[in-house]
Design goal:
alpha/beta, two-stranded parallel ribbon, 12 helices
Length: 364
């Protein structure tokens, strides 16, 4: 008798599911797009936002096991499922914060599985929110029930996601009994991956602290204390160290300055043996006049009215190489380093040597 009642109830819930299926599918389209918009506004970069609508046969299996706990299909909160996969542990909390602003959260049915302490639980340490779309966030006149249906959002890291998928494939999660030695090895691997997950977050925090330290040193002018690397050079460029010289050169012809990316010069400075931002600062102080002289000779008698913002930096490097006896070979190497080897670089190096040989800075 109980089986007949259960089967009848299951069939009723499945009929409700079929009726609501177009709404479920609409939700599966809308929710990920809304999440991506909010992540972009919050500056959160995630690995993926996945979605699915539970298939009827999967739902039927669930209902036959647990159907008595559901009065209607609205009580099944995971028919629409969203999974947000983050790169770092601490981004899970940031994603959760976005969800709390965007959706109504059913706190009673939400669960934080990250509080589990079992060694083999790593891949299932997701944060699960049961949500509802408020009318203030999105409405659709064709699907008014869209704002009443609850859905599930799972949040976890890339490593947790990978582990869950791998572990599922072994049959470990499905309840199939496997030898203890394999369970032990899986548990060891889970622990290792959890440490890796934590280590990635720790390294990111340390890098963020390093970048702030570099920015503070650059802002304070303590350039000799800042090792030359990508982050340091980026911070240095943000204070516009070459702008004054660039404007002085542009004033020769009242030329317009066209901004370009100066980051390729980092590779050149490293190849030149510069170790700190102080070395670049010394280049500016010692060779600015020479760079200006080169520019005067190159464009003084021309009608050039647009100049690249790299002109000052390039001329500084030209002056440095020539004054340190790099000559034609050094200039060609500089051009090859900046833009890649080219047959034209040798001719350009010859021209630069010819143009600069009688300039005042060469005879000082």
């Amino acid at each position: 008798m109980n089986n007949i009642i259960t089967d009848s109830h299951t069939q009723e819930l499945l009929a409700q599911y079929r009726q609501l299926l177009p709404i479920y599918e609409q939700m599966a389209e809308v929710i990920p797009e809304k999440l991506k918009e909010f992540f972009a506004e919050a500056g959160i970069i995630v690995a993926a936002v996945e979605h699915r609508v539970k298939k009827e046969d999967s739902l039927a299996g669930k209902l036959q096991l647990k159907g008595n706990k559901y009065q209607s299909i609205h009580d099944v909160t995971d028919v629409v499922g969203i999974r947000v996969i983050t790169f770092y542990n601490d981004d899970v909390n940031k994603v959760a914060s976005v969800l709390e602003r965007l959706f109504e959260i059913d706190w009673e049915n939400s669960i934080d599985k990250r509080k589990a302490h079992e060694i083999d639980s790593f891949g299932y340490l997701s944060l699960h929110y049961i949500c509802r779309i408020p009318e203030a966030a999105y409405t659709n006149a064709e699907f008014p029930e869209l704002n009443q249906i609850r859905f599930e959002v799972q949040m976890r890291t890339v490593l947790q996601h990978a582990w869950a998928n791998m572990n599922h494939d072994t049959g470990y999660k499905s309840g199939v009994e496997i030898p203890k030695v394999y369970k032990r090895n899986l548990s060891r691997l889970a622990g290792m991956l959890e440490l890796v997950d934590d280590e990635f977050s720790r390294i990111r925090h340390e890098l963020a602290d390093y970048r702030r330290q570099v920015q503070n040193l650059v802002a304070s002018g303590n350039l000799n204390e800042v090792p030359l690397d990508g982050d340091a050079f980026k911070s240095y460029l943000q204070i516009g160290p070459f702008d004054a010289l660039t404007r002085r050169i542009a004033s020769i012809n009242q030329a317009e300055i066209q901004p370009v990316d100066l980051s390729p010069f980092l590779r050149l400075f490293e190849a030149m043996g510069f170790k700190t931002l102080g070395d670049i600062d010394a280049l500016m102080k010692n060779y600015s006049e020479a760079a200006y002289q080169i520019a005067c000779f190159q464009i003084g008698l021309t009608d050039i009215d647009i100049l690249s913002s790299s002109v000052a930096l390039q001329n500084l490097c030209i002056a440095y190489i020539l004054k340190n006896n790099g000559g034609r070979i050094g200039l060609k190497w500089m051009l090859d380093t900046l833009s890649g080897p080219s047959g034209g670089n040798e001719a350009m190096a010859d021209l630069l040597v010819e143009q600069t040989k009688d300039l005042p800075f060469m005879n000082q």
